[in-house]
Amino acid sequence: MSALVSTKGFWDELKRPILALSPMDDITDAACRRLVARCGKPDVMLTEFVSVNGLCSPGRKRLIEDLRFDEIERPVVAQLFGTNPELFRRSAELVAELDFDGVDINMGCPVKVVCNTGAGSSLINEPELAIEIVQATIEGAGKLPVSIKTRIGYNKIQTEEWASHLLQANPAALTFHLRTRKEQSKVPAHWEEMPKIVKLAAGTGVLILGNGDIKSIAEAEKVVTETGCDGVMIGRAIFGNPWLFNREWSEKDISVDERLDTMLEHCRLYEEVFGDKKKFLVMRKHLMAYASGFPGAKDLRVLFERVFTAADVVAAVEKFRSRLDR
Ligand SMILES: Cc1cc2nc3c(=O)[nH]c(=O)nc-3n(C[C@H](O)[C@H](O)[C@H](O)COP(=O)(O)O)c2cc1C
Q: Band of the pLDDT at 325, cuts 50, 70, 90?
């Protein structure tokens, strides 16, 4: 059978530089993405990664919670991880049924529990299987574009070898987190590797995005100009800063009051989206990040150590505000 080629779908309609919200497990859930879409919308958002084994098992009912999205997030892409091409094909069909705008394959996760199953960045060591997975996903995805998010190597940098291999799988877009699996996030991202990838991809029609350590739109524009890639994914810089992608409104313009109101809105959205289906404790990471960079923020963080529900957060913020008024 000749190799399948992913459709370009929405990717073709995006202006350069493409600014995407990077997927982060237990961070960029549906509530977070909805808030980000309101505060400053990126060009594309990805869900947290979801296991294809889980989606093709009775556990699907619970996992489908991670694949909720709202129209405001579009274009929105579901990210999948696993090792079995047939399960990728079936999961991609499900993603299409759920009416996502695209499917992304995780080939970058460095976490042991994922890598030990052969998934995530372990696929860098299984190049033939990686291609089979992409092809099966393209088959299942039908009209939806298929993209890949990966790293530049496993134990050592192998950018050119790995990028040229993945290009043969004909994805719509390829995102490189510019570190190896071994490096985790412990060293600065190797943006100097990006021009090599751009050169290899020239003329293939595959969009190339870079990822790692970008903290603002200005920084994103700079690396795109310098390296020639089509765009960037930004992850951790969103912590406590859902305004990140807003070109008119930077974080420094946000008053403490607006910051507090936004975190309350985030909690409200979290309860609205997930109810009791997901632990509220997941919100703590966001809360701690919101509560930083202004006078008295530490006191608020101390109050947040004891919050278990959105109502607790409302009470903590009221207490904090009453102290400010005094
Ligand atoms: C808490 C956390 C969870 C993550 N979960 C995912 C994930 O589900 N899928 C994925 O492709 N990458 C995941 N990543 C990696 C990020 O998407 C991104 O590649 C990495 O943080 C580097 O980009 P940054 O410097 O902009 O944060 C995660 C990162 C963090 C910090």
A: confident
Instruction: Provide the CATH number for the domain formed by 9-238 in this structure.
Output: 3.20.20.70
What residue spans define the domains of the chain? 9-238, 255-325
- The three-class DSSP label of residue 297 is helix
* Distance of CA 319 from the midpoint of ligand 1 (Å): 34
- Tokens matching residue 5: 């080629």
> Which residue ranges have their beta carbon within 6 Å of ligand 1?
22-25, 27, 48-49, 79, 106, 108-109, 149, 177, 211-214, 234-237
Three-state secondary-structure class, residue 210? strand
Calculate how far, in angstroms, residue 318's C-alpha sits from the geometric centre of ligand 1: 33
CA distance 164 to 176: 12
* Helix/strand/coil for 157: strand
pLDDT in tens, 67-88: 999 999 999 999 999 999 999 9
